[in-house]
Amino acid sequence: MSGGATLIQLRDKVAAPREFYEQAAAALHVARDHNAKLIINDRVDIALALNADGVHLGQSDIPVDAARRLLGPGAVIGFSTHSISQAKLAARMPVDYIAFGPIFGTSTKENPDPVVGLQSLPTVRATIGDLPLVAIGGITPANGIDVLNAGADALAMISELMGDPAAIREKMRKMMSLVAGL
Ligand code: 3NM
Fold this sequence. Notes:
Layout: E1 7-10, H1 17-33, E2 37-41, H2 44-50, E3 54-57, H3 64-71, E4 76-81, H4 84-90, E5 97-100, H5 121-127, E6 133-136, H6 141-149, E7 154-156, H7 159-162, H8 168-180
Parallel strand pairs: 1-2, 2-3, 3-4, 4-5, 5-6, 6-7
Bound molecules: ligand 3NM.
């Protein structure tokens, strides 16, 4: 956040619900202190309980419509897609952004969907109209500009940042200055 990230997704697939709730409460304090938005992965109940900025949902989570009914019109709802047809369907849902990936190989997900590749981004871009497109999966400073040039509006990164927690701020700043040069 002090590195310039504007939207943080809290993601923990292994924590017990209580632990995830407590992590989310702590993360929300930090986000608020830095004027960043914090959205919660998968757990609409936790987002609602903590008045977080929203949720990120995957293909197997509760439907976007249901999450929107629970969270209201002001919440940020992001939705993961892994193919052009999923992105096309997502564009008709009440989402604030569509995530698309994995663009490149990733070792962060246990069972990642097949790599969609940089070459699929222009088609997704054209398919989803004006909705913000967030690229995910194997994004680094070395390929991020290509990803943005191919049609993404934003980049999501996990291993590139989390590999060395002490260097997150520096890596984010480097990434933000690369993007600012576009
Ligand atoms: N979702 P990294 S790929 C959480 O394809 C996630 O929707 C993906 O991590 C998708 O930046 C992915 O370490 C992992 O590759 C992204």
